[in-house]
Amino acid sequence: MVAIAASAGGVDALRTLAGALPADFPAAVLVVLHIPPAGPSVLPQILSRAGKLPARHPQDGEDLPAGVILVAPPDRHLAVSDGHVRLLAGPRENGHRPSADILLRSVAENCATRCSGVVLSGTMDDGAAGLAAVRAVGGLALVQEPAEATFPSMPVAAIEEARPQFVGPVSMLADRLGGWVGELEQEVTEVRAAKEFADDPELTPFTCFECGGTLWLRDEYGAQRLRCRVGHTFSVDSLLLDKHTALERALWAGVVALEERADLSRRVIKRLENNGRAGRVDRYRDDIAAAERQIKLLREVISDLIKNSSGTTTYHAGAADGDPA
Question: Is 309 within a domain?
């Protein structure tokens, strides 16, 4: 079983990889690409045209077919369980549904040494913890050479957390997969159970960006992740970006409130002047001046916040950053 993860810039890499796999490839191939939750995905058609293997969206509960590329549909996690495909409407991980980590963990837990994980171009670090799980159970971990990737963040994070057996250009990843499949023993390997979390997760003072619940620090095959009670999961970097987003929203809300306050004061002044009570307007002019000073200050803070976070704000874009999938 081969699980492949990609995000921004990943369509070209996926097309190259699919085009290099032979028509008799004997493993199931599962693909997660970060895409917007609304609207159809044309990635199966793209991959079918790119190579000799058919590609399609799977049905929940179907058997895993060899020599077919199964692509996660929009807004559903793709996973495997007991030789069957699962499409899950569960909590987002690192802000994504589908999540690369969920797919990679599931193939690790179900196939152990007979699974392979591949991480391609993308932003932030979804897939790093999942690839670490593949590596921990003795599977084959492959990563696209960051210098070749359009967006190198996902490959770099996977290299740092998973210590893959091979890092290289996409064309060579396909060769490695072919060689690996050919070397596998023919008999079915018993899949050993793998623990998803540490026995004693650590309570943190942080709250979930998605639901506001308490976050617990857990160890997932050597990769640390923050997870809330209902299952939303974050790496430290993705949580940091989400907190940045929450802070920016709060600051903009402050700007809106101050601008509305100034506008209300202007309306009161106009009414007082129309009623011949212009002597009472000084207080409202002071309020307007104070609001305008505070608005200027908040806008400067927001500008600095955006400048200081440049390079990380593409995390949630995925295929929306130009990949037509």
Answer: yes
Q: 87 and 177 share a domain? A: yes
**Same domain, yes or no, for 29 and 55?**
yes
Q: pTM for the whole thing?
A: 0.73
Structural domain for 225, as ranges: 202-234
How far is it, in rounded angstroms, from Cα 131 to Cα 119? 8
Co-location of 39 and 84 in the same domain: yes
| Cross-strand partners of 233 | 93, 227
Token readout for 32 is: 């997660």
What are the pLDDT digits (tens) for 112-128? 999 999 999 999 999 99
Question: In this predicted model, which residue has the larger pLDDT, 117 or 227?
Answer: 117
Task: Say if strands 223-228 and 233-234 run parallel, antiparallel, or are unpaired.
Answer: antiparallel
101 catalytic residue (yes or no): no
Catalytic hit among 101, 126, 242, 323: 126
Domain with residue 138: its CATH number is: 3.40.50.180
Q: What angle (nearest 5°) sits at the alpha carbon of residue 115, between those of residues 110 and 119?
A: 115
Find the helix packing angle between 236-274 and 282-308, rounded to 10°. 160
DSSP single-letter state for residue 276: T
Do 226 and 306 reside in the same domain of the chain? Answer: no
**96 counts as catalytic:** no
- Crossing angle of helices 153-162 and 128-136, in 10° steps, is 30
Choose, from 34, 77, 96, 232, the residue flagged as catalytic: 34
Q: In this structure, is residue 262 part of a structural domain?
A: yes
